[in-house]
Fold this sequence. Notes:
The chain has about 160 residues and is an alpha+beta fold. The protein is built from 4 helices and 7 strands. A 7-stranded mixed sheet has the order 1-2-3-4-5-7-6, with helices on both faces. Helix 3 links the parallel strand 4 and strand 5 (about 110-115). It starts with 5 loop residues before the first strand and ends with a strand.
Amino acid sequence: MIQDCFTIDAITGPDTAVDLVLSRHFADMRAGSPEESCHVMTSQGLRNSGALLYALRDHSGEVCAVGALKPFKDGVELKSMHTVREKRGLGYGGAVLHSLLETAKFQGAKAAWLETGTQPGFAAARAMYFSAGFEECQPFGSYTADPLSTYMVLNLS
């Protein structure tokens, strides 16, 4: 459960703290999956793709979790959902997920898609997505079937 106050804000300019969290996320994902099964993007790659970055900061201003909304069809793809290791289990990931989904709905998105891993290290993330109403789906966009990936969709209409 979240123990202290926090804010979730869109990142509209350079932010070294957010970039550091995203670079750690990138390194973690690359270390845990073969390159052909790893779809993580750098912070610059996210920005170049048109994704909108968001960060959850605790009462002290520390970045505790991040996520991104990347335009896809008539909806969004969730990218780079990551909670820093020391802050896991406090509800920050769920708070970012809820905020991103509400933002997507407000912007008129009809659905939210995501890709995540099938390995045990992704079990908590998959459980969070299922509890938010996501359902497994076929690979979407440029993704292809991969035993190390699962694909999910949530109808936002």
